[in-house]
C-alpha cells in the first residue's frame, strides 16, 4: 500500500500539460461492449466467453480487438480509496481477467464516469482520477470509456483533461473513449484529449425513431446520422467522431443492419459491437465480419464521408480512400424500394476537406457492390434497385492504365488519356526517334511532360549554351518512359548529363503505391545508366502535388521522394528536390505560384530553370 500511495503522489505532481498516448486509434477502434445487451447483468464468465467467441467466430481476424466491460463492474472503494471490482461478479479480479483476454490476443477495456457515481449508480472517478488510472494500469487495462453522468457542476474540458492526464501519468497506453454525448461539443476541443468522443446521446435499435426515457432519449440509426452534419472536419487518425455502439443483431431487419454497418463504416465511426456474440446467428456474423466494409472504415486515409447529393428518398455519400480509391454509398431512407439511375459522368466528386477529386469524364473507375457482389465501371450509368431501409455500398478503384505500363514493365501507350491522345503520344515518340537519329546531345531532359512546352525564350536563356534535347516527354509514367528509352534509339545519344524528372501520374493515374512507383523510377535510372555508363543523372524529386502539405497525394509524394533519394550516390546519380522552389516555408503552395506550376507559364518555367541551372552548370563542366 505504501508503494501505491507513493505512485499516487507522483501522479498528482504529473505535468498538467500531459498528452494522450499517441499511436492508438490510428484507425477507428474496433471491439465489443457489454452494455447494449447486458446492461448491469455482467460477470467475468460473460467476458471470458465473449473473448472466446470473438476468436472462434473470426471477429478477431476481421480486426476486432477490444473486449470492453461497461458499467456495473464496480465493487466498493477500500479505506484508501482504491476501487475494487464486485467480488461476486468478478471473483478472480480484473488482473486475472485481463490476463485471460490478453492470452487470446485481445485487449480489455473498462468503464468509469466523471461524476462521483456512474450512470448505473456505482462509484465514479470524481476525485479519484489518478488513483483509478493507476489501478487500471496495474490490472492491465487497455481501454477506458469515460461517461458523463452525475456531472452537475463539472466543466467538461477540465473533467476529461484530468482523466487524460491521469491515464498518461499511470504509464500504460490506454485508449481514451470519451462518452460525453456531445453536450459540450467535444469535437471542438478534444483532439488532444481523447481518441474518440461521442457526438450524440445513446443509440437505440431502430431505423428512424427517438425512444424517450423521460428526461432523455435514445436515438435510432438515421437520427444519429443526421446529427453528424458539419463534424467530419474534426475526425482523423487518433481522434474520431463516435456515433455510439453498433446495434447490428439487436432486432432490426437484415437490410437495416447492413445499412447501419455501412453507415458507421463510411462515417469512420468506431465499430464497437453490442450484441451477444455467444448466440449470434450466422447472418449477423456475416455482416459484422465483412472485411470489405471493415476496410472502408479502417482505411488509412482516415477521412469521414460526406453527403454529396439528395435525390428524394435516396442519399448519395462519398468517402475518399487511400490510393486514389473511393467508397460511395446510396442510402434509401424511405419506406419503398427506389431505382438508381446514376450518370457518373454528370457528377464530379470534389472534397474540399481532403482536396480529393474524382472526375469521371477524365478517368474510368471500376466499382464493386460490396453487399451484392456485382461489378461494373463508371463508363456506364449505374442502374440498381435499393430496398427500403437499406444501402448500396460501392468501392471504386481507378482502372489499370495500359495493362502493366505503370511500373517496371516497359509498354507503349495503347490508350488515349484525357490530357493527351494516343495519336499525339505516337507523334511525340516519333520526335524522340528523330532526336536520337541526329545524336550529338550534351544535355538531355527525360521523363515528365513538365519540360514539354518550355518557353523558348526561357529555354534559350537558360540552356542555349549546350546542345540540348527532350526525350520521353509525354511518357506519362515509368513504364511508358522505359519503353520509349528502349525503342526510341536512345542508345545513339551520348549526353554528358541526363535530367530525369518523374511525375505524379505514377501515383494518382496509375494508382501505384510509393513503393511500386519507386520500383519504376529505379528501373528507369537503371536503364539510363545502362545506356549512358559515362554520363551522369540529375534526378529531380517527384513533383509536389496539390496546394496543401497534408493532401493524401502529397504525402505519397513525400514518401516516394524519400525512397527515390536513396538512388543518389553523389557521383553518377545526383538527387535534388527542385520542386521545393514552388513551396512556401509551411510546405503549401501559394495560389499565385500554383497556376504557374501546374500549367507552366513563362514564370513557372523560369522558376524551374533557375532552380536547377546552377547544378546543371557544375555537372556539365
UniProtKB/TrEMBL annotation:
Alphabetized SUPFAM superfamilies for the sequence: (Trans)glycosidases (SSF51445), Glycosyl hydrolase domain (SSF51011), SGNH hydrolase (SSF52266)
Tell me the GO BP annotations in alphabetical order.
Answer: carbohydrate catabolic process
In the Enzyme Commission scheme, what number(s) does this protein have? 3.2.1.22
- Span of the secretion signal? 1-18
Q: What reaction does this enzyme carry out catalytically? A: Hydrolysis of terminal, non-reducing alpha-D-galactose residues in alpha-D-galactosides, including galactose oligosaccharides, galactomannans and galactolipids
Domain SGNH hydrolase-type esterase residues, every copy = 445-607
Check the record and name the InterPro entries matching this protein. Aldolase_TIM, GH, Glyco_hydro_27, Glyco_hydro_27/36_CS, Glyco_hydro_b, Melibiase_C, SGNH_hydro, SGNH_hydro_sf
Q: Which domain of life is it from?
A: Bacteria
Any one GO MF term held by the record is: hydrolase activity, acting on ester bonds
Which residue ranges does the record assign to the Alpha galactosidase C-terminal domain? 312-396
The UniProt keywords, alphabetically, are:
Disulfide bond, Glycosidase, Hydrolase, Signal
Q: Which family does it belong to?
A: Belongs to the glycosyl hydrolase 27 family.
Q: What is this protein called?
A: Alpha-galactosidase
Q: What is the lineage of its organism?
A: Bacteria, Pseudomonadati, Pseudomonadota, Betaproteobacteria, Burkholderiales
Amino acid at each position: 500500500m505504501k508503494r501505491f500511495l507513493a505512485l499516487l503522489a507522483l501522479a498528482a505532481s504529473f505535468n498538467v500539460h500531459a498528452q494522450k498516448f499517441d499511436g492508438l486509434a490510428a484507425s477507428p477502434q474496433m471491439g465489443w461492449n457489454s452494455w447494449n445487451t447486458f446492461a448491469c447483468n455482467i460477470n467475468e464468465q460473460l467476458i471470458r466467453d465473449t473473448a472466446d467467441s470473438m476468436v472462434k467466430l473470426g471477429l478477431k481476424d476481421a480486426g476486432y480487438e477490444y473486449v470492453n466491460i461497461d458499467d456495473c463492474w464496480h465493487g466498493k472503494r477500500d479505506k484508501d480509496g482504491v476501487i475494487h471490482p464486485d467480488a461476486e461478479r468478478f471473483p478472480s479480479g480484473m488482473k486475472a481477467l485481463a490476463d485471460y483476454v490478453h492470452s487470446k490476443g485481445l485487449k480489455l477495456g473498462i468503464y468509469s464516469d466523471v461524476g462521483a457515481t456512474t450512470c448505473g449508480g456505482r462509484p465514479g472517478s470524481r476525485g479519484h482520477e489518478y488513483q483509478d488510472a493507476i489501478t487500471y494500469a496495474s490490472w492491465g487495462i487497455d481501454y477506458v470509456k469515460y461517461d458523463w453522468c452525475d456531472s452537475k457542476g463539472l466543466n467538461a474540458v477540465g473533467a476529461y483533461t484530468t482523466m487524460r492526464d491521469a491515464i498518461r501519468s499511470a504509464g500504460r497506453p490506454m485508449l481514451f473513449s470519451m462518452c460525453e454525448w456531445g453536450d459540450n461539443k467535444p469535437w471542438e476541443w478534444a483532439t488532444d484529449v481523447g481518441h474518440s468522443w461521442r457526438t450524440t446521446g445513446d443509440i437505440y435499435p431502430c431505423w428512424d425513431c427517438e425512444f424517450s426515457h423521460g428526461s432523455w432519449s435514445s436515438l435510432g440509426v438515421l437520427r444519429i446520422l443526421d446529427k453528424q452534419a458539419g463534424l467530419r472536419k474534426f475526425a482523423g487518425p487518433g481522434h474520431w467522431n463516435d456515433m455510439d455502439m453498433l446495434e447490428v443483431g439487436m432486432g432490426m431487419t437484415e437490410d437495416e443492419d447492413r445499412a447501419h454497418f455501412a453507415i458507421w463504416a463510411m462515417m469512420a465511426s468506431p465499430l464497437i459491437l453490442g450484441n451477444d456474440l455467444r448466440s449470434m446467428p450466422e447472418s449477423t456474423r456475416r455482416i459484422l465480419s465483412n472485411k470489405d466494409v471493415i476496410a472502408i472504415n479502417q482505411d488509412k486515409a482516415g477521412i469521414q464521408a460526406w453527403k454529396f447529393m439528395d435525390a428524394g428518398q435516396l442519399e448519395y455519400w462519398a468517402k475518399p480512400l487511400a490510393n486514389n480509391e473511393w467508397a460511395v454509398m446510396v442510402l434509401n431512407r424511405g419506406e419503398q424500394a427506389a431505382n438508381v439511375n446514376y450518370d457518373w459522368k454528370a457528377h464530379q466528386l470534389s472534397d474540399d476537406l481532403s482536396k480529393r477529386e474524382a472526375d469521371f469524364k477524365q478517368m474510368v473507375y471500376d466499382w464493386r457492390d460490396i453487399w451484392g457482389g456485382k461489378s461494373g465501371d463508371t463508363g456506364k450509368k449505374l442502374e440498381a434497385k435499393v430496398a427500403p431501409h437499406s444501402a448500396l455500398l460501392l468501392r471504386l478503384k481507378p482502372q489499370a492504365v495500359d495493362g502493366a505500363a505503370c511500373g517496371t514493365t516497359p509498354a507503349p501507350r495503347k490508350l488515349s488519356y484525357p490530357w493527351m491522345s494516343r495519336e499525339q503520344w505516337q507523334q511525340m515518340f516519333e520526335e524522340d526517334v528523330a532526336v536520337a537519329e541526329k545524336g550529338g546531345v550534351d544535355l538531355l531532359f527525360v521523363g515528365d511532360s513538365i519540360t514539354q512546352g518550355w518557353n523558348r525564350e526561357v529555354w534559350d536563356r537558360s540552356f542555349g549554351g549546350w546542345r540540348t534535347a527532350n526525350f520521353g516527354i509525354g511518357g506519362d509514367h515509368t513504364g511508358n518512359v522505359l519503353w520509349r528509352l528502349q525503342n526510341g534509339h536512345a542508345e545513339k545519344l551520348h549526353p554528358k548529363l541526363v535530367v530525369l524528372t518523374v511525375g505524379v501520374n505514377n501515383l494518382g493515374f496509375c494508382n501505384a503505391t510509393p513503393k511500386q512507383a519507386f520500383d519504376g523510377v529505379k528501373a528507369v535510372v537503371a536503364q539510363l545508366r545502362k545506356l549512358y555508363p559515362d554520363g551522369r543523372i540529375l534526378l529531380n524529386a517527384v513533383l509536389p502535388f496539390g496546394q496543401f502539405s497534408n493532401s493524401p497525394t502529397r504525402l505519397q509524394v513525400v514518401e516516394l521522394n524519400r525512397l527515390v533519394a536513396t538512388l543518389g550516390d553523389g557521383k553518377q546519380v545526383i538527387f535534388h528536390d527542385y520542386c521545393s522552389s514552388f513551396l512556401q516555408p509551411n510546405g503549401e503552395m501559394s495560389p499565385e505560384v500554383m497556376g504557374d506550376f501546374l500549367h507552366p507559364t513563362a514564370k513557372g518555367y523560369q522558376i524551374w530553370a533557375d532552380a536547377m541551372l546552377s547544378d546543371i552548370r557544375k555537372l556539365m563542366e
